[in-house]
C-alpha cells in the first residue's frame, strides 16, 4: 500500500470517489429540492439529515453483515427494490396530485392557509427514500469494501 506523505493513497482514492458520488444528483437530491420548495429551508435541512441517518442505517446493516444476506437472497433484494420503487412512485404521484389540485407552496414552512407542514414529514420521507433504496445497499456492499484494507 502506497503512502502519500501522511495520507494513505487508498484513502485519497476513496475521498475522490465518494465526493463524486455525493455531488451527483439522484433521488435523494430531488427529494431535498422538492421538500425545500414545499416547506422552506427547514424541510430541506430535515430531509438532508434524515438521508444521512439512512446512510448510518445502511452502514450499520453492512457492518453486521445483513446487507450481504440481502444481496445473496434474490427474493429479499427483489422485495426491497419493489418496496423502494412503490415508495418513490407514491411520492411522485402525491406531488403530481398536489400540483394538479393547485395546492399552494408553503412560505417558510407554513402553508398559505396557515397550517404548518408537519416537521416529521420531511424526516420520514428522507429516511425512507434512503433506507429503501437498493442502490445504497449495493454501494455499501460492492463499492465501499474496495477501500478497506484487510
Strand order of the largest sheet: 1-2
What structural category characterises the helix and strand content?
mainly alpha
Shape, per Cα inertia axes: globular
Return Rg in Å.
18 Å
Please specify the SSE layout and strand pairing.
Layout: E1 3-4, E2 7-8, H1 9-23, H2 27-39, H3 41-64, H4 66-72, H5 74-101, H6 120-131, H7 134-143
Antiparallel strand pairs: 1-2
Task: Describe, in plain words, how this protein is organized in 3D.
There is one protein chain. This protein is an all-alpha fold and 150 residues long. The chain has one domain (26-147). Helix content is 73%, strand content 3%. The chain contains seven helices and two strands, in the order ββααααααα. The chain has a two-stranded antiparallel sheet. The longest helix has 28 residues, at 74-101. The protein is globular and about 55 Å long. The chain starts with a strand and ends in a 7-residue tail after the last helix. The relative contact order is 0.18. The model is unreliable at 106-114 (pLDDT under 50).
